[in-house]
Amino acid sequence: MDEEPERAKRWEGGYERTWEVLKEDESGSLRATVEDILFQAKRKRVFESHGQVRLGMMRHLYVVIDSSRTMEDQDLKPNRLTSTLKLMEYFVEEYFDQNPISQIGIITTKNKRAEKLTDLAGNPKKHIAAMKKAVNSMCVGEPSLYNALNIAMQTLKHMPGHTSREILVIFSSLTTCDPANIYDLIKTLKALKIRVSVIGLSAEVRVCTVLTRETGGNYNVILDESHFKELLMYHVKPPPASSSSECSLIRMGFPQHIIASLSDQDAKPSFSMSHLESSDGGPGLTLGGYYCPQCRAKYTELPVECKVCGLTLVSAPHLARSFHHLFPLDAFQEHPLEEHKGDRFCQACQGELKDKSVFTCPACSSVFCTDCDLFIHDTLHCCPSCIHRQGTS
Amino acid sequence: MEFYTKETGEKNNFLALALSSRKNLCIHPEVSSLRFGKEVDGKCHSLTASYIRAQRHSNPNQPVCRFYEEFDAVGRQVPIPSGIYNLDDLKAFGRKKGWCPYYLARYSILHANIVVYSYHYLLDPKIADLVSKELAKKSVVVFDEAHNIDNVCIDSMSVNITRRTLDRCQTNSLLNETDAAKLREEYRRLVEGLKEANVARETDIYLSNPVLPDEILQEAVPGSIRTAEHFVGFLKRFLEYLKARLRIHHVVQESSPQFLKDIYEKVCIDRKPLRFCAERLRSLLRTLEIADIADFSAVTLISNFATLVSTYSKGFTIIIEPFEDKTPTIVNPVLHFSCMDPSIAIKPVFERFQSVIITSGTLSPLDIYPRILDFRPVTMASFTMTLARTCLCPLIVGRGNDQVAMSSKFETREDFAVIRNYGNLLLEMSAIVPDGIVAFFTSYVYMENIVASWYEQGILENIQRNKLIFIETQDAAETSMALEKYQEACENGRGAILLSVARGKVSEGIDFVHHFGRAVIMFGVPYVYTQSRILKARLEYLRDQFQIRENDFLTFDAMRHAAQCVGRAIRGKTDYGLMIFADKRYARADKRGKLPRWIQEHITDGSLNLTIDETVQLSKHFLRQMAQPFRREDQLGLSLLTLEQLQSEEMLQKISQIAQQV
Questions:
Q1: Listed ranges A348-362, B403-417, B630-644; the one with the highest mean pLDDT
Q2: What is chain B's Cα-based Rg?
Q3: Of B77, B212, B456, B544, which is most buried with the most CB atoms under 10 A?
Q4: A201 inside 8 A of chain B by CB
Q5: Which among B590, B576, B597, B586 has a CA at the least distance from the CA of B395?
């Protein structure tokens, strides 16, 4: 058999049974199911509250992206690789938004080899740029789970004990080509307390099941694109820290942003320390910036680890943003709309309550609509009505 | 066990044990190292037979088995402590106490609550007489995995005699150099007490008579073979006759009365002495004090044949073929004495025991079993599987992407397009199914042809990029090696395909749990080889005696094997797997209707006669669905019940609904 030419056209693509999700109700209408699907999709992301557990706030995460032949499969549009990288861009942004004092690195694996796309770093721009470049790369050969995990492990094992060490594998292939017994590697990973989670793009593979079970990670397989995104977003939240991890005090610097105007005679443009090594040019000389309180090295962006004295430099809002993980907002109680008595208006957006259910804050018993409930839990992390009361009292 | 003790709050005296052959249970260092069951039996016998042990009294150098001695000395007084013993437990227990586990198990059967052993211990008349004779009438007999029970019954009553068997008889010392004095001595003893004492019975079990109606046992051995010399002469004559019969060049098929008539005319052997052949040989061998009975298996076979052929006039047929089917040019005559009627072997079981339960996961259609086994069932019920999620996905693939029908039927089996489509199906599946795939072909020959053709077309090479390929062969050692490697490949993420044959070792005995079998593909419908004369004779008999049409029986047989094959993939509620029937004919109602109910109810109209592309789409969807986390709580109330739920009225009603009375 000769190789099939790459399927480029939509009509040449695979068979899809999109109609199977839909079910008619008694009157033969599809509306109920469609609405239900939409509603479910909205509600899906309501998280199970951790309660009071210790969370690993400083995370070191390596994301392994499979770039093997199977990534060219078109069941995600336009193909798996493009779709994955696009979602990853979103993931990286979201990750740094939620975990400002954490770092991320990207590894790709193809052709039985694995290579680092980016090192562990706290700068989202660099990762996103690297991934944009990677979109056009070829997907060939088989992935090697062993090599990829090994590379990640080599770096992660030097990370300090109070940080969480994680690997997230996005695995599209159903096979892996390993140079040695992977079960030995899994044991080593377990000993090093590296948590490995896997998101499968095609089906459940045994070796991943074992890998995640042993190292305490999650294993999920995607159903479709939106489910994929949801699973990725699950990894944005910091995982509960293992009780055995070390506790230590960390010195942090809070540099002030000094803005020097061009008109100021004393101001001299200077290089940022973080740009010294990068050869891509970028904005070389700038006037203002953040100065390390310990050694006065200049940086244009935060958070960063000082190249000179090794101090972790953050800004106060960063820490504050990490703070809500520790005190998550309780989930609101859900009631059917019919049972709800009182005003039919959402406390937040003042819109009329139209959805099937309404949500009540357990603390102040204000009523919210589904959209606002999601917004409050995902973005605000505090109940506006409660805050309002505090302000007035 | 502990759980029950805790729950009920009292210690229960419950004994369950497994019984197997000496080969599996022996702990004697020398004997257990032998490879073949027959050798082990022979060696064991030479160490434990009563006369050997008697000799030891006079000659202390005579080797005996110390485990048996120990057991014989003390083991009988103290019953084995209650508990549940499998083979390994028995061996461990035997080692600890220094008792022979085999005889311990044999002895403990008498007071055990549950005994687990092979069908043969009950069905095969030669063994059943010894092992299962003392079971109480009130015992409940459960035949589990009984979808093949008719074949087991038939096998246990059939005898195949080749020229090699006869040659081995010929060279046997018994028939050549016979010690006249010993023979005379033997006769003297025989006259002294025709009825053998039961004392030595337990150990001297090596040969026993096939099922004989009791009245024959009561009768005295006829005069013509009463003296040993005469009997040996008689056997020689019989042997010569058989050899003469095998010297033919065309196929002969005759019934047992015909055979008896012929033998009477040719060599003047009467029916009555023939009947006693097996019994007589047994007593002869015992008195001759022959230690190693393994050498005598050929003679025993002949004498068993003699007894069977003269006892039953109905339900048996004799087929003498000068050639084997595979090699039609080489003369290799075989005499098949084959049983046509499975009910003969199972009849004593039905008569003897109060309740007999026949059960299997793939017992369908139910109504054919009472017909071929000739019994009237008290109750019949088929159960579906209660599943919290649809964890099986039977798909019937009828066409390739080029719309050419896929089928293994004889006319199209050499068709290039069909073979290519089968190859494409396997290729596509290998790309989307994780870990292990098991593919079943209808026969070894067919598999070889197809695989060779795939190799030429380059399909095999493409498949190998996705998964490793392993092949089941007729060699047991090679197959178990392939299986081991297959499991290793599934385990470490490489993925593998096992190509095997329906009715082979893999299809019957080996489970592919979880990742070892995510998909099973049946290439074609596994019909039996219909040209075989034995099968033809059997079909004819079924039609004449039970009014079962040939086609019905063949389809029934094919479908039970197909169900057996695909059933390998799902071995539990948390397991899941694809079942792909790659033959157009499966879509037909007569085939589909013969699949077990738990498979049938998952075949929707949408999964009939699919193309390869559609199959791939459906499978992908299914595999993703199944990979979603599945927790114990999800099953609760559906396929897993708590005690309260189990006792609730509603649930009991539901259960009685599920059990479909037939």
A1: B403-417
A2: 28
A3: B212
A4: no
A5: B586
Q: Residue B84 belongs to what H/E stretch?
A: strand B83-85
pTM of the model: 0.80
Question: What burial class does residue B253 get, using C-beta atoms within 10 Å of its C-beta: 0-12 exposed, 13-18 middle, 19+ buried?
Answer: middle
Q: Residue A6's pLDDT is what? A: 45
Q: Best interface-test mutation with A: which of B464, B492, B612, B633 has the largest number of A CBs within 10 A?
A: B492
Task: Convert B421-484 into a string of H (helix), E (strand) and C (coil).
Answer: HHHHHHHHHHHHCCCEEEEEECCHHHHHHHHHHHHHHCHHHHHHHHCEEEECCCCHHHHHHHHH
CB contact under 8 A, A174 and B495: yes
The CA distance from B263 to B478, in Å, is 44
Q: Give tens-digit pLDDT for A5-15.
A: 444 455 555 55
Peptide bond into B526 cis (omega under 30): no
Residue B624 with chain A: CB contacts under 8 Å? 202-203, 221-223
Find out whether the peptide bond into A303 is cis, omega within 30 degrees of 0. yes
Instruction: Say if the Cβ atoms of B627 and A200 lie within 8 Å.
Output: yes
The rounded Cα B470 to chain-centroid distance in angstroms is 25
> Cβ distance B598 to B658 under 8 Å?
no
Task: Show the CA angle centred on residue B600, arms to residues B594 and B602, nearest 5°.
Answer: 165
With vertex at residue A233, the alpha carbon angle to CA A238 and CA A332, rounded to the nearest 5 degrees, is 80
Tens-place pLDDT, residues B270-308: 777 887 777 777 777 766 666 555 567 777 788 888 888
A12 inside 8 A of chain B by CB: no
3-state secondary structure of B660: strand
Segment A245-289, tens digit of pLDDT: 566 777 888 888 777 666 656 667 777 776 665 555 455 677 778
| Closest alpha carbon within chain B to A182 | B492
- Tokens describing residue A303: 């958070």
- Give me the helix-helix angle, A182-191 and A206-215, nearest 10°: 20
Q: Which two tokens stand for residue B501?
A: 């044959």
Give B100-157 pLDDT, tens digit per residue.
888 888 888 877 888 888 887 887 776 776 676 677 778 888 888 888 888 888 888 8
Q: What is the 3-state secondary structure (H, E, C) of B487-532?
A: HHHHHCCCCEEEEEECCCHHHHHCCCCHHHCCEEEEECCCCCCCCC
Nearest chain A residue (CA) to B424: A1
Q: Write out the two tokens for B79.
A: 């019953």
Q: Which two tokens stand for residue A128?
A: 């996103």
Report how many Cβ contacts below 8 Å link chain A to chain B. Answer: 89
Residues, chain A:
393
pLDDT at position A105 is: 92
Domains of chain B: 2-117 (no CATH), 159-347 (no CATH), 392-630 (3.40.50.300), 631-662 (no CATH)
